[in-house]
From TrEMBL:
InterPro entries: Ribosomal_eL30-like_sf, Ribosomal_eL8/eL30/eS12/Gad45. This is Ribosomal protein eL8/eL30/eS12/Gadd45 domain-containing protein. Residues 89-151 form the Ribosomal protein eL8/eL30/eS12/Gadd45 domain.
Amino acid sequence: MPSKTNTENKCYEGERLANLLQSTKREIELARRTDGSSLPEKIWLKQQFSIGVNDVTRVLERMRPCTELGKSAQIPPLISSTHKSPSVKLQAVLVASDTKPNWLTKHLPGLASSRGVPLILVKDNKGGSLRLGELVKLKTAIAIGIKEKGNTINKLIEDIL
């Protein structure tokens, strides 16, 4: 059962942020090498992360809200069809705190906490969205969701949380 601190918002800035991003980049490279996948890098990153506010919101909305036991689960499909969407859970959500206008990400803390997903705010003088973009090989990224895949990236985030 997750502890109370797992669903609280954490803010990373300064040296603490630099250490978080550096170790995350290292684990991304390690996971990419050990995966052995022949997929292009951008496609592989999309499998590991939910990138952008819309994608993060979509994945969070598809997750079942936390029960009294503190566990979240996927919503079972209402209609059985041949088109099965992959069940995806987010381990954590990284959000840039310098988002302008701030209403773009205003809904994420409440949505993430209702799903039992920890939210990590990235605050940096250089720009949190620029720092998050570096992780996923983009110019900027306002929000990144880390998908539960059971790899070294997930182990690192679990240790951080």
